[in-house]
Amino acid sequence: MTEQKNYPLPAAANSPAASAAEVLLADFQTYLERRQLAESTIHSYMYGVSQFLTLYQSISFNNLKLYKCYLLEHYKPQTVNLRIRAMNCLLESLRLTELRMSMVHVQQKSFLENVISQADYEYLKRCLLRDGNQLYYFIIRIMATTGMRVSEVVQLRAEDVRRGYVDLYSKGNKFRRVYIPIRVRKDCMTWLAREKRRTGFVFLNRYGDPVTPAGIRGQLRKFEARYGLDAAVLHPHSFRHLFARNFIEICGDLSMLSDILGHENIETTRIYLHRSPSEQKQLVNQIVNW
Question: CATH number of the domain at 2-99, out of 3.40.309.10, 1.10.150.130, 3.40.50.2300, 3.40.630.30?
Answer without folding.
Answer: 1.10.150.130
